[in-house]
Structure formats: structure tokens, C-alpha cells
Amino acid sequence: MKNQLLHFFLFLVTFSLLLFTQKISAETKSVSKEKEIEKKTVSYLKNEGKSAPEYKTIKLEKKHIKKILSVNGFFEDPDAVPFSVETRVWNELKVIQSPDHGNLVKKNEQVVSLETEKLSQKLNSMKHELKILSLDGDILSNELKRDEKVNKIELAELTRTEKYNQRVHSHFKELDLPYEKKSAINELKRYEENLLYMVEELNQLKKMYESDDLTEETEEIIITRTQNDVNRYKFALEGAQMRKNKRLSLEIPKMESDKQDLFQKQNLTLTTDKINKPLALNKKKLEMQKIQENKKNLITEIRKLEKDVLNLKALSPISGTIFLGTFQRGKWSGLKPFESKLKKGGILKPHEEFATICPLKRIRARINIPEKNYADLIKVKTGILKSTINPDTEINCKFDKISNFPISPDHYDLAIDVELPENMPLPLPGTSCTFDVITYEKMNASTLPETSVFKEDHDAELRFVYILSPKGKPIKKRIKVGKTSGLCIEVLSGLKPSQEVLKDKPGN
Fold this sequence. Notes:
Elements: H1 2-48, E1 57-59, E2 61-76, E3 81-83, E4 93-97, E5 104-105, E6 113-114, H2 117-211, H3 216-311, E7 320-324, E8 327-328, E9 331-332, H4 339-342, E10 347-348, E11 355-358, E12 363-370, H5 374-377, E13 382-387, E14 394-398, E15 411-418, E16 432-449, E17 454-455, E18 463-468, E19 474-485, E20 488-493, E21 500-502
Antiparallel strand pairs: 1-21, 2-12, 2-16, 3-11, 4-6, 4-10, 5-7, 7-11, 8-9, 12-15, 13-14, 13-16, 16-20, 17-18, 18-19, 19-20
């Protein structure tokens, strides 16, 4: 067994040595082949008379570089006052005569002529309505004074009536009702007694006539008459019995029910009246309060209309020049948005700014600062302002600060108070201008042509140049750059002053 393992191990070692020997041999052949190719290439070049490529190189150059930011804006009058008709109630602003663009206007002088006739009619109508409302208030006030006194009397009367009705009802239940019942019974009893008396009288007559000397005819007449009376009383007794039963079972219960219903109705009426009379008085007080409120509101509206009458005179708040249209950070809207409104018969809206009064005593520039230049501008405080109308005249300006918040997407606001050079006319509001600011300046900056500096494809912020290796091959050299001025770019680090770089990209 041991001999077998030994033979297997020797086999593996022999096989590994054989593979290694073959690999070394192959690599040797490859190197030899490469050297042979190189020798052939050199020989070919020599035979053809060609040499290695030559590159133009340059060195860092000291230059004065300057970065100028030029931004646009407009001139504005800082003392300008937007003009509108500030009515509070009246909405119909009909133009009679339009103002003239560029005309001078004095303080409290009419800017635009507007129709006032309809407003005056409305005001007179409301004043007439106020008089009627005042009279209604006076009448209701007098009625209230009367009703307050009458109400006390009527409430006392209702209380007395309520007590009287209670006594009447109690008298009926305690006295009248028992009497009616007793009267029905007594009437029947009276008829019964009368009948007994008549029967007894008849019997007595019969006995008496049996012993007296009266003739039979006389006796018969008297007895017959008396018998008839008895018969009539028997019939009357039957009627009395019927009346008694009817009164006790029908009439008296109905009388009792009617009296009870009447009593309850009277109580309800009295109770309701006692509640409603104070309520009616309070209602009148509320009506009086409503009249007073309406009167107060009407007076307020009249006062507003009276102010509107004054506002329709459209008087200028200051002296200055009329500019039809509006200004937004110096930018003029122009006349077109208001042409149809300001012609005769045109309609303006209350609080609508349609003109601007400019004193034209001083001027200010409003500049739009792009967001990307904000950081550069906050470091400087001066610049040169140029009017589009007079671009050859430079105005040196100072400014304090840029707005802390943007005034539109990607833009900030810069306001510059302008001191004009002598004999320079005041630019009109709305005139465009440019503002040039030196954002960066260096006297002895190390520079290269911008065409000799390249950007990395994977990161445009990374810059590099090409230099020659000791063997004369172009290689990349990363550098740090600063500002670009004209065709030059500032090199901050990465190169030595005497170091040469390729002027152009290799292969170009």
C-alpha cells in the first residue's frame, strides 16, 4: 500500500514540473516575438525616414484678468405715486375725458374726468330714504311709549278678568249647578203635590155632594170640572217627569260641559294674552332697534358715497408728470392695457392703477440679479450703470445690499440710488439700463489659453492639461483653475511656473 502512494506522489511532481517547463517556454517565445516586432518597426521607420511626433508647448503666462458681470434693469422714480380712483361703494367709473400721457399735473388737480350724475342721483335717493326711515322711527318710538303704558293696564285687566272668570265658574259649580238639579226635581214634586191636592179635592167634593141639596146637574158639572183638572194635572205631571229626566240626563250635563269648556277657553285666551302682550311690546322694540340699525347703516353708506363723490374728482396727490400705465420695478406696462378703458366712455375699475404720477426729481435703478451671480455680487459694492439711450455715459454707483428673498424664480432685486454726472439729463422712468460689476480681478494671475485646458468626461468640474513624460509621451496632469477672462483661464495650482504644457490636445 505504501509503495502505491509513493508512486502516485512521484507522478504528480513529475506532471507539475512538465507543465511549468511548457509555460516558461511559451513566455520566452512571446517576449522574443515582441522584441522581434519592435525591431522590425524601428527598422521600418528608419527605412521610411519617419521620426517621433513633435508637440507644441506653452508655459504659464502672467496676465491681468478681470471678470465683469453685466445685468439688465430699468430706471424708476422712487417718489412716483401709482394713481387709481379709490371708491368704496360706487363701481361705475365712466371716463368723460382721458388724461394726456406726459402732461404735467399739479397737486389736487384733476387727472381724469369721470361721470358723477348717476352717483349724485343715488346719493339723493338714499338721503330721501333716510328721511322716511327717520319718520318711521319717530312714529314707532311714540307707539312704544304708548304701548308700554297701555300694556301695564291691559295686563292688570287680564288678571282681573281671570279672577272674575274663576269666581263665575266656581259660583256655577257650587250654586247654579246644584240649583238646576234641585229645580228639576222640585218642579216634578210640585206637579205631584198639585195632583194630590186635586185628587183630594175631587174626593172631598164627591163626599160633600152626596149629603148636600144641590141638584145633580150642578154636582155633575163641578165634579166633571174637577175631574178634568185632575186629568190635566196627571198629564202635566207626565210632562214634568219627562222634563226632569231630560234636564238631569241631558241639559244640565251639557250645561256643565259648556261652562267648563268656556272657562278653559277663557283661561287659555287670558294666559295667551298675558304672554303675547309683552312679546308684542318686545317685537316693537326689536323693530325700533332694526330701524335704528338700518338708519345707521344707511348713514354709513351715504357717507361712503359722499366720499366717493369726492374721489370721483380724481385729484392728483402730488405734482408731477402723468405716465399712463403702471411700473413694476421700473418696467413700464405701456399704454396698450389701458387704451380702451381711458377713451371717452371707457370703464375703469375701482382701485385699478391706470396711471403713475412722477415728480422726476431723482432716479433709481432696479436691477435683476440672476441667482447664479448672487454670491459674486454680495462681495462687491460698486459698479457702472449705463442708460440704453445714452450708453457712452458711465455712471459710477454704489449699492448697499441685494434683496434677501428672490422677487421671481431665479432672480433677486437690486435697488441703486443714482447720482447723475453734471449736465446729464434725468433718465425717464421705464428706460432700460445695464449694470456692469467687476466680480473678480487679479493683476498677476497665472494663466493658460482656455483651449489648452480640458474637462474630464465623468466630471466637468475637474480640469487637466497635457504634459510630456521624460520619454516624450503626452500624459494628463490635473490642475485647479479659477476664473475665465476672455480667452484665458486662471491656473491656481497643479503646475510649476516653468512647467510646459501641450498647447493642443494630442492627436489634434
